[in-house]
Amino acid sequence: MSKIRVAVFGASGYAGEELLRLLLRHRQAEITAVTSRQNAGKPVSAVFPRFTGLDLSFVAPDVPAIAGNCDAAILALPHGLAAEFAVPLLEAGVKVIDISADFRLRSLAKYREYYGEHPAPELLKKAVYGLPERYREALRTADLVACAGCYPTSSILPTAPLLAAGLASTEGVVVCSCSGVTGAGRKVDLPYIFPECNESMRAYSVTAHRHLPEMEQELAVAAGVPEVRINFVPHLVPLNRGINSTIFLTPTSKFSDEAVEQAYKEQYGNAPFIRFLGKGKMPDTKHVTMTNFCEFGYTFDKHTNRVVLCSCIDNLTKGASGQAVQNMNIRFGLPETEGLL
Fold first, then answer.
1. Domain range spanning residue 70?
2. pTM of the model
3. CATH of the domain at 65
């Protein structure tokens, strides 16, 4: 088959850099455009020296000029801005895979509460949530894919099967996550410069992080209930990349080690990027860095009658760009792992 022609919009950030790394080794993808308003006309290697020798330059984000030469557009743009590009690209017949938060939430009211007014509300119902392990079949025919966020990916993947199987309660769910600094984006901002982050760890957005409604939405879908409310406490840690999430659940009467094993087997038995470690084995970010894997394990605390799940992903790969490529592979009928192993 002919190669998928891919345009990357907003390619000068960390997610854009990661997309280029993955797409350049993808045997069925051809990069036809990489956009950046600030760097238009510059060689990609001038911004990312790791790509020295690559004959590719940034161009202005001119949708009419780009749309005619691409089959898929991956949007690595800020929320709000991504939707403005998604609309004309979809109208031009391009499949859109969005890494931003613009189309993840089904509720317009929730989007307004956490992000402000939505620039293209009519598209919310058309978007397919881009978490392949949960929505693989719907992704095969999606024109607009809303890639799952990094924190939600690390939390939903280990938690959803237990809620879906009725092994854990939807009440009292607590998620405590630690993320590397690249999760904040490629920008010069005081809280993220080296002297502020190094040898330090701090919680932030403890009661109002923008990923909270996304996590609650998807856990409610998994559990088959109208609403789930959770505590989500994110932390910034002195790593370049990686997320470690610890999730606390209350077991139901159905809970057992055998039932847990069965629930994960049924949900993820054929999922190429899930590494379920089993009971008593905890993941480590260094084992998933620069990969598209989600690795998790669990234990049961008899003292508090709580199930403790621990998961790790790379926030730039499985949490963003790798997930986008995985979704693209599914949409275009390619092996899910192409370009990602």
1. 4-148+319-331
2. 0.97
3. 3.40.50.720
